[in-house]
Amino acid sequence: MAYLEDAEVTSKRRIAIIVVSGFFLVSMVVALTVGAGIDKGFHLNPFSDKRGSSTDKSASTKAIKAICQPTDYKQECLSSLTTAAGNTTDPIQLIKIGFQAAMKQIYEATKKSNLLQKLEKDPRTSMALDTCKELMELAVDELRQSFNRVGDIENFSKYKTFIMDLKVWLSASITYQESCLDAFENTTSSTDAGEEMKTLLKTSMRLSSNGLAMVSQIFSALTDLNNPNPSRHRRLLSFDGLPILGHGDLELPEWYEAGVRKLLTISTAPARKANKPDAVVAKDGSGSYKTISVALEHVPKYGNASFVIYIKEGVYNESVRVNRSMINVMMIGDGANKTRITGNHNFVDGTPTYRTATVAIHGDHFMAMDIGFENSAGPEKHQAVALRVSADEAIFYKCSMDGYQDTLYTHTHRQFYCNCTISGTIDFVFGDAAAIFQNCTFVVRKPLPDQSCIVTAQGRKERRQPSAIIIQNSTITADPDYLPVKNVNKAYLGRPWKEYSRTIIMESYIDDVIQPEGWLPWAGQWGLRTCFYTEFRNTGPAANKSRRVTWQGIKQITQRHAAQFTPGKFFRGDEWIKLSGVPYIPGVTTNRQSKNATTTRSVLRGF
């Protein structure tokens, strides 16, 4: 991991000279990777795209080679840019051309998938192709969003947010394409559709990876510029967190956005009548709607204001879909054990894992409080998702996710879970989001007789993806029914689903349900050298690391490194979690002697 290593002082000086002299991307990449000199004729603003295009083809070729230098798939990069770039040397335009090339490849794959689906006779494969089309559309959306954002930055001081957004969106595009291929597992195709799609998406996935490499190089260079001596100047973020809501007085700062204040206020029961939500769902007819899905039909498309849906106590047996146009939706229930959304779609009965979710969230800036999400299919039905989250900057507070295999699908983007309970058997938290869990409880359930239990299965495919499963200040324990079989159906912290799987468990309580080895292989040596698994300052009977597996991917980190995996650092949580009013600790919690930290631990013990 690049940010776990301190760069040489000489590199810092070089980068500073580059930025001051005005090279944007080409100069940075060249100076960092191929040692090119500095052209003093560029604009001082490193995000300016007002450079004159050169008519010299050799200049364009040099620019393309420089911009492709940090990528893993240089041949595809050179080929795609050389074909469409003409004589331009503008790095902004070159990056956009790269995004367009990736989108074009996905469009071509979509056309081919339509033809394959018409010819396909196997129902599972046909459904996989249908799933693929949805995921490819999402992948294109992420690339288009990145394309539109490049060059729009006006305030250089916000470059970290700007580039992090790009990295998250490009990473999501890669994950959507990979999820398309995952849909063909365990299918019997009459047209070899799975292999055909793998071939069709090969180039687009490589081009998407190249885009992520280019953007990551910018981030690395500019971060180094702002930290010329990280060993001396890096500091942990403030430990000052927000009050634990629901324990003590509920004080709402004036600067909270109106919708968030409404959500938190109506959660205090008697105040609901005085602070009406935008929609009320009640099975008994006492609300505006009887089902959640009908209520969602009234959410304004791409609305800027928060849309609050209060879901009264009851069990709602329905498939809920919060699509991409439903942004800023907030759902609040009467408690995770009182307001429950349930379903039983599962893999054994013919549904691809991606589509088994009882609730699927795609609309950005989603928030849920006091709701239970469940898939009741049972362990014999294998993959059965209770909640799938693909929304960016999604928050879940005081919720529960209950199931068996694949309970919570943290699919893509940035996600924060606080005071939640997640239960299951195999890979019951999985996916490729940047997902952080604070003050949560993970409950291992009794599996089938021949099964082991695994808490996490993180799915990072590319080493530059800004994704991970991070469990902080939480508890890993088990359901009482599991305890009699814990030495037969053994439980583990996680296993590497994809090659660069990354999971961090820190400052948490690990009960004696977890085996001393800690981690389990996926298949043979797959991912054992390239994964990133670490445990930092955990407590409990199974927190002792002396008998842990010794794969190359098992890392030992310091507190300074651990701080990089906290919400404030990892996905700039101060910019979106803090305003929600949800309890939030931006940094490490070790040695945190505050009332909030003590209260949180006692709450966990009560679960």
Automatic annotation (TrEMBL):
Its EC number is 3.1.1.11. GO terms for molecular function: enzyme inhibitor activity; pectinesterase activity. It catalyses: [(1->4)-alpha-D-galacturonosyl methyl ester](n) + n H2O = [(1->4)-alpha-D-galacturonosyl](n) + n methanol + n H(+). Pfam families: Pectinesterase, PMEI. Keywords: Aspartyl esterase, Cell wall, Cell wall biogenesis/degradation, Disulfide bond, Glycoprotein, Hydrolase, Membrane, Secreted, Transmembrane, Transmembrane helix. The active site is at D427. GO terms for biological process: cell wall modification; pectin catabolic process. The keyword Cell wall biogenesis/degradation applies. Signal peptide: none annotated. It is an enzyme of class 3 (hydrolase). SUPFAM superfamilies: Pectin lyase-like (SSF51126), Plant invertase/pectin methylesterase inhibitor (SSF101148). The chain crosses the membrane at residues 15-38. SMART domains: PMEI (SM00856). The keyword Disulfide bond applies. InterPro entries: Invertase/methylesterase_inhib, Pectin_lyas_fold, Pectin_lyase_fold/virulence, Pectinesterase_Asp_AS, Pectinesterase_cat, Pectinesterase_inhib_dom, Pectinesterase_Tyr_AS. Pathway: Glycan metabolism; pectin degradation; 2-dehydro-3-deoxy-D-gluconate from pectin: step 1/5. Its main location: secreted. Residues 59-214 form the Pectinesterase inhibitor domain. It is found in: Secreted, Cell wall. NCBIfam families: PME_inhib. In the C-terminal section; belongs to the pectinesterase family. Acts in the modification of cell walls via demethylesterification of cell wall pectin. This is Pectinesterase. The gene is LOC110746295.
